[in-house]
Amino acid sequence: MANSRSAAPARLERIVHEAAEKHNLDPALVNAVISTESAWNTQAVSDKGAMGLMQLAPGTAERFGVENPFDPVQNVDGGTAYLKTLLDRYNGDLTRSLAAYNAGEHAVDRSGGMPPFWETRRYVRKVKDAYFRPGSGRNPQSVWAPPRNPIRKTVNGEGQVVYTNE
After folding, report:
1. Cross-strand pairs, 152
2. More confident residue, 8 or 132
3. Annotated catalytic residue: which of 37, 62, 119, 166?
4. Which single residue of 10, 108, 146, 156 could bond 100 by disulfide (Cβ 3.0 to 4.6 Å)?
5. CA–CA gap between residue 67 and residue 74 (Å, rounded)
6. CA 129 to chain centre
7. Stretch among 14-18, 130-134, 138-142 having the lowest mean pLDDT
């Protein structure tokens, strides 16, 4: 696997940092996904039709407003938004989120975790290895933060006041 820091031109690094900041993710995680997905090839197309740096499937690209998946700015923004959505959905579980990025949310939900696909297991291992290896630039505080639910005041059936954020 190529070292993402040396494989990405400065322009692409800027794009990654801007998208990661916008979506509150660690740029090193986005770098690890891109390195694994496309090896920084902006024109990459998979056998299954996923496109660009973050290998967005056509439906995912449409879902996240990516009109041109080969445009690095659109692709990285859409892929980073999708990754953030998955981290929120799976409460910060990086393994499930990466598995869903690779195999789809339905596959993760059906299996109750990691789908039994060799390709997905290999993919998750490669991304995590790239992300957690020394020198990746990983920031342990910025992978994911739980969404902050507002505290609400309710009254239960017995007339007691209950404060909750659930």
Report:
1. 164
2. 132
3. 37
4. 108
5. 7
6. 15
7. 138-142
